[in-house]
Amino acid sequence: MNATGTSTVAWELLDGGVKGVAKKFSQDRGRALTTADGRAVVLTVADGHGSRAHFRSELGARWAVEAFTASARIYAHEVVRRGQDAANWPRLLAEARSLPQQVVHAWRRRVLIHEANSPAHGGNGSKSADAAPGGTAGSAPEADLAVYGSTLVGAVITDRLLVCWQLGDGDIVLVDQDGAAHMPFYTGPDMGDETESLCEPEAWRKARLHWQPLTGGPPPGVLISTDGLSKSFADHEGFLAFATGVRSRAASHGVAAVQAQLPDWLGHAAKYSGDDATLAGAIPAPGPGTAPAHPHTDTH
């Protein structure tokens, strides 16, 4: 922090994705951007379910990224504006807990607008996007949100706070400058293909939250990805080694060199997992900054 209160942390971004082998197109979407005059980063990835029952899920993933990005940019500006004072953190934490509901409502509205104009299962397309769930007799049928089903992972990073959200599968890895890697939401090996989804009723209640103030030394690198990347590794340790390698290679060769190689790395992963693989990341540029401390994770 300099004398004017402006962050001294500069962020370099990674952003890439590939489709799974034998797939016609990717169901994933992702985005990495800076906001608040470069003082905050927003990262997000979404993974459309992609099965026959979810035949518009690539649209669901796209709108999930758009909805999260819109809400997260507003939140990031508030964190930059108020987050330097720890007295404001309880209120910012409360706002972080309410963000998934904002995102789900925005996503649902976008889906219903599309359904009103192009019903997934036929019909005259006359249903209003503002209609309440469970119509009455003689009304147009309720939209099948599962058609657009998608997971969502996102993060907001500033020099003082790291906030992450997750709904459904996917991965968040925090990599410290010394190479130590940590996954705030990891609970063990994935035991199947079932996952929470934006298409579920009151989906925001199933979103997980990780809240982490940052104090002293450099902040962690943050990598978020769809599960097609982690599934390509034989074990959890192999995936963590990959994440550590991304940060160490960024330090030794520069983030631009890592970005140039990212399509090859993700393509290699997609060959092993058979799934789409998408990654968005933020690496703190060399120089003075802050370091992680006192994490807080909500699992409900």
Q: Over the alpha carbons, how many angstroms does the gyration radius reach?
A: 19 Å
> Which percent bin holds the helix content?
25-40%
Give me the CATH fold name. Phosphatase 2c, domain 1
Strand content: 15-25%
Mean pLDDT over the residues: 85
What string gives the helices and strands in order? EEEHHEEEEEEHHHEE
Which structural class matches the secondary elements? alpha+beta
Mass-distribution shape? globular
CATH architecture: 4-Layer Sandwich
Separation of the first and last Cα atoms:
34 Å
Query: For the largest beta sheet, what order do the strands appear in spatially?
Result: 2-3-4-5-8-11
**How would you name the oligomeric state of the polypeptide chains in this document?**
single chain
CATH class: Alpha Beta
CATH superfamily: PPM-type phosphatase domain
Largest sheet: 6 strands, antiparallel
State the low-pLDDT regions, or none.
Answer: 1-5, 125-141, 288-297
Number of strands: 11
Number of domains: 1
Helix count from the secondary structure assignment: 5
Q: Could you provide a short overview of the structure?
A:
The protein is 32% helix and 22% strand. The chain has 5 helices and 11 strands, in the order βββααββββββαααββ. α1 runs antiparallel to α2 (89-117).
Describe the structure.
By secondary structure, the chain is α+β, with helices and mostly antiparallel strands. The protein has a single domain (11-298), classed as PPM-type phosphatase domain (Phosphatase 2c, domain 1). 32% of the residues lie in helices and 22% in strands. The chain contains 5 helices and 11 strands; from the N terminus they run βββααββββββαααββ. It has helices at residues 57-82, 89-117, 227-230, 236-253, 255-273, and strands at 11-18, 28-35, 40-47, 152-157, 161-167, 171-175, 181-182, 208-213, 221-225, 277-284, 296-298. It has a 6-stranded antiparallel sheet with strand order 2-3-4-5-8-11, with helices on one face. The two termini are 34 Å apart. The model is unreliable at 1-5, 125-141 and 288-297 (pLDDT under 50).
